[in-house]
Amino acid sequence: MNRRNTAFSLFAAGAAAGLTLTYVTRSARARMRKPIAQAMTIATTRDRVESFVESRDQMLVALGNKRRLAMIDRLELHDAPDGRGTEMHLAMRGIGKYEIKDVLRRVKALLEAGEIPTGRRYAA
Amino acid sequence: MKAVIWHGTQDVRVERVQDPEVLNPHDAILRVTASAICGSDLHLYNGYMPTMKPGDVLGHEFMGIVEATGPEVRKVRVGDRVAVPFNIACGSCEPCMREQWSLCDNSNPNAAMAERLYGYSCAALFGYSHLFGGYSGGQAEYVRVPFADVGCLQIPDEIDDERALFLTDIFPTGYMAAENCDIKGGDVIAVWGCGPVGQFAIRSAFLLGADDVIAIDRISERLEMARNAGARTIHFDEVNVLDALFEMTGGRGPDACIDCVGMEAHGRTPDAVIDKAKQAMRLELDRAHVLRLAIHACGKGGTLSVPGVYGGFIDKMPMGTIFEKGLQLRTGQTHTHRYMRPLLERIRRGEIDPSFIITHHGTLEDAPKYYQLMANHEDNFVKSFLRPSAFTQGEVSRHTRRGQEMTAARR
Fold first, then answer.
1. In this structure, which topology does domain A35-115 adopt according to CATH?
2. Nearest CA to CA, how far is B90 from chain A (Å)?
3. Digits of tens for pLDDT over chain B (411 positions)?
């Protein structure tokens, strides 16, 4: 009786672990396939933002590495209401929403402030 | 260089670390001539602010002389004597252009971390955890100042360091707290906490036309300092604060209440005891006893102004009281850049001398001892004024003479 119970428990635990693993893998794959969209408003003209995104060198600085260029699914620019600047909508595959926001934040910092902020005290 | 380094809860040490460098085009390097310990530094000292790392340089109230500048710095020049606001602002994003400097979009390199906690990130701060950018602070011999043209305010020679230093935080913070009350003639303002920010809030309320200011604390010397500014006082260990305020305002309640205490409020009521227990177990970040009391005490249609620092979540928030009395809540990190120049003018005109707040003159090496005194409310400690030792030993200039005179007078 005891041996049957142990076997059943082991089978149930194994099945649960297998299902969980399948779910996590599938949802991770789906996340990789599905683009994630984020947006940020940059307090400058659309022309300036356009010339920034068209410059491969500048975009590489904002993206952080070359491989990410291929991950861009969609990049749209819209005028923000009441002259508040330019909305940049960026959808990317294979990276999370906070990483996409960091890309947008770097574009915004470079265009608005002219530099990417760092809290370091000295060069690494 | 020597700097005050955070190593853990109630463990700060003066150590030698690598000098700062110009890293970005808008940076300046400052040789610090004066710095101070802020009441909000105690939240770091006591371990209540998350994301501190051993080795972090503390201090967000400092001034000094520009030693080097980046290639894009236009207004600030090497040799300028400047005071620097505690928050870092780029000067070109939308919040900066609206003069909401403490909400700068671009200065916090760890914005993603702050965004997870607060929804959106606010400006970075000097020496105030990695949540706010991880920038090294000014309790050091040298400090790197990003966006130097935006932050650095040149100080005229006739204003000495003792009067200029507090433009970097506590004076604008107290002033903005009072300004947030929209003070009109006849208004009665209640101020909780007679520490440095409270003292400046009291004086600013009078400067802005308040008829009466009631200061609440339990430390006699601080209450005395408040009375010297013209405030009436309540010792909260001796009387029931709500009853006293009701009586002192003829039953109307204060027109505005200012909470200068923030996340480490003391009290003996059940809510304060529960807060303390929950905070010790890290089940709650802030002890909001004073905030609850201020909400309860505030007169109908009044304003709550909160310059005291809160870090995260509080419970038992009496939202019903705010709603039923139609109270207005105004708060936020100080937009220091907005106030520095006009307040410097007030100092120059002799309307206020901020050096009244200094109780302890010392060197950087005294910082660990001063943190301890401040945390334990010992030796009548209100505010420190720290000189890097190299400055005091090797350089006797017009900027130090007044400090020496004041120290000699106190002795």
1. Alpha-Beta Plaits (3.30.70)
2. 6
3. 999 999 999 999 999 999 999 999 999 999 999 999 999 999 999 998 889 999 999 999 999 999 999 999 999 999 999 999 999 999 999 999 999 999 999 999 999 999 998 999 999 999 999 999 999 999 999 999 999 999 999 999 999 999 999 999 999 999 999 999 999 999 999 999 999 999 999 999 999 999 999 999 999 999 999 999 999 999 999 999 999 999 999 999 999 999 999 988 888 888 888 988 888 887 887 889 999 999 999 999 999 999 998 988 888 899 999 999 999 999 999 999 999 999 999 999 999 999 999 999 999 999 999 999 999 999 999 999 999 876 544 454 444 444 445 445 544
In terms of CA atoms, which chain B residue is nearest residue A98? Answer: B112
Backbone angles phi, psi at B141, to 5 degrees: -80, -30
- Cross-chain residue pair A119–B130, CB shorter than 8 Å: yes
Report CB contact under 8 Å: A43, B135: no
Say if residues B292 and B318 touch (Cβ distance below 8 Å).
yes
Q: Which helix (H) or strand (E) holds B344?
A: helix B336-348
pTM of the model: 0.89
- Nearest CA of chain B to the CA of A40: how many Å? 11
Chain B interface test: which of A87, A121, A122 (most B C-beta within 10 Å)? A121
Pick the last residue of a domain from B311, B331, B351.
B331
Domain residue limits, chain A? 1-33, 35-115
- A64: region left, alpha or beta (phi > 0 left; psi from -120 to 50 alpha): left
In this predicted complex, what is the ipTM? 0.86
B17, B21, B91: residue with CB nearest A123 = B21
How far apart are the C-alpha atoms of A18 and A3, rounded to whole Å? 22
Q: In this structure, are B109 and B215 located in the same domain?
A: no
Q: What tokens does B280 get? A: 């010790």
Order of strands, sheet of B11-16, starting from the edge strand that comes earlier in the sequence = B11-16, B2-8, B56-57
Tell me whether A123 touches chain B (CB under 8 Å).
Answer: yes
Report which residue type is found at B255: D
Which of B267, B297, B331 terminates a domain? The answer is: B331
3-class SS of residue B253:
coil
Looking at the partner chain, which of B18, B92, B110 has a beta carbon nearest the beta carbon of A122? Answer: B18
Question: Beta-carbon neighbour count of residue B314 at 10 Å?
Answer: 19
Residue B319, domain extent = 170-331
